[in-house]
Design a protein that fits this description.
Shape: globular
Strand content: 5-15%
Distance between the termini: 53 Å
Number of strands: 4
Order of helices and strands: HHEHEHEHHHHEHHHHHHH
Oligomer: single chain
Structural class: mainly alpha
Helix content: 55-70%
Strand order of the largest sheet: 3-2-1-4
Number of helices: 15
């Protein structure tokens, strides 16, 4: 085995987890914090995606189905399959669930007017195609994805009016869901449990003060996305949830990997190498064996640095 492959195998080894031990540790974490913060149950947002499915399964095992409440909060851009998967999982787990269509609230706030493709007669499939085309066009014209461009301010950026409206459009959805989770949590004295994972957290693929970032506890925050998938298999999360393409389900036509411009398998290897404090040339050498290009490594490092402000609360120096 040459040095390149040896380094790659070393990174992959660092990604390996013992799902049973991880599950038990996280269940204990949820249980302890529910007691420590004097709550009488937990509440989580259940989207139909893998992260929230794993959190729901862990909460049920940690505190029991009778103390676990899942809020399912679709809106007009949500895929029906996502809502159906969320409802089916809640039933399978035997946990309480509440379906809240947030479309009327978003309409009241004027959120849908921010998105130019929200035409009454436009089919959803056509809307998805148009979003993907616009996303690809922006990337070709500017050299970066709209997601990467939006991690910082938009002053003097190309197409900044489009980006401002798009950001306000999709971020409002997650922030409204956060509000509803805390509303239910405080009405029933429940611990709000978030579902952010380490991969998304490190590159800023979340909405600041949204339901994927603002919570009382974040059980998955030490796990990369590929590790969450492994844990999901151990917890018997349904295959259709594990195998579906991860999607924020807030803008039609966008999956996580299209927005990030990299697969989670490759992203996680880069993030592990960065966490190990490898220099970029060393990472490029090691990950060449995994068909990961140097520009992808440099871009991921840039995303981590550019999104640092999202993981901090700034205050005056004393």
């Amino acid at each position: 085995m040459n040095n390149q492959k040896r380094k790659l195998e070393g990174l992959k080894a660092k990604m390996q987890i013992k799902p049973e031990e991880v599950a038990l540790s996280l269940e204990d974490f949820i249980r302890r914090y529910m007691e420590k913060l004097e709550r009488e149950g937990v509440v989580l947002g259940l989207s139909g995606g893998i992260d929230s499915a794993v959190v729901a399964a862990l909460c049920k095992r940690a505190v029991g189905p009778e103390k676990t409440l899942a809020l399912i909060m679709p809106e007009k851009d949500s895929k029906r399959e996502q809502t159906e998967d969320a409802l089916a999982l809640a039933e399978e787990l035997g946990i309480r669930s509440r379906l809240i269509d947030i479309t009327p609230y978003l309409k009241k706030l004027g959120v849908y007017k921010l998105f130019p493709l929200n035409k009454p007669l436009m089919p959803k499939k056509l809307k998805e195609i148009m979003v993907r085309k616009a996303y690809n066009y922006y990337r070709r014209k500017t050299g970066e994805t709209p997601f990467a461009a939006s991690l910082g301010g938009l002053k003097n950026k190309e197409f900044n009016n489009y980006l401002k409206r798009s950001n306000a459009y999709y971020r409002a959805k997650h922030r409204l869901r956060m509000l509803l989770l805390y509303l239910e949590g405080e009405k029933e004295n429940r611990l709000v449990v978030g579902a952010a994972n380490k991969s998304e957290w490190l590159v800023g693929f979340f909405v600041k003060y949204g339901c994927d970032a603002a919570a009382d506890i974040m059980p998955l925050l030490n796990l990369y996305k590929t590790q969450v998938r492994e844990l999901a298999r151990y917890l018997n999360v349904p295959r259709q949830i594990i195998d579906k393409a991860p999607s924020p389900d807030i803008i039609p036509g966008l999956t996580d990997e299209r927005a990030l411009a990299i697969s989670y398998e490759k992203l996680d290897l880069i993030l592990v190498a960065l966490e190990e404090e490898w220099e970029v040339p060393e990472i490029i050498e090691a990950l060449g064996a995994a068909d990961i290009k140097g520009e992808q490594i440099i871009e991921v490092k840039r995303l981590v640095e550019k999104s640092a402000h999202m993981r901090k609360l700034y205050r005056p120096e004393t």
